[in-house]
Amino acid sequence: NFQYRGKAPGAKIYSQSLGLLTGPVSDFDLQLNTARTNAFISNNSWHYGDDNQYDIGAASFDAAVRDALPYVTGSQPTLYVFAAGNTGRGSDSGLGGDPGSIQSPGTAKNIITVGALEEPRNISAGVSVNCVTTNINGTNVTVCETNYPWQGMTDSDNEVAWFSSRGNVGIG
User: Fold this and answer.
1) Three-state DSSP class for 135?
2) Most exposed among 35, 79, 86, 120, judged by the fewest C-beta atoms under 10 Å?
3) How far apart are alpha carbons 4 and 51 in whole angstroms?
4) pTM higher than 0.70 for the full model?
């Protein structure tokens, strides 16, 4: 009865494999297949391993933003969105980390690259650690600290997640 239609009831999705089991697919094939479906936006949660440079892969997506079907007359633009990567090595406070750790093709200049933020979930796993037993007036007293290992990683909605790759923006 169409009671629950969502925000984009007429939207369609096209999904394609990178070929991890059947062999790699070229950037050109990924761009070509997406454009042939008339998709306006292509969401990508992958990157080239250990490659944080502006390279030929990033350049190919820069060109595809303007024309994803270069052998067809006219422009067929597609907006590409890429994950920044998971090599940021920041702190639980959202600070620090490795600058310039965004992975290609997220380094392209004409695409949108998205990093990860924390999500307040109050995850805790009250694990007792650092127990110390002290003799006080002839009575042994054990005091333990409680460790909440995920608390710092899930306490905010405006901090960069510790694992999220960081860009090269800003002075210094």
Assistant:
1) strand
2) 120
3) 42
4) yes
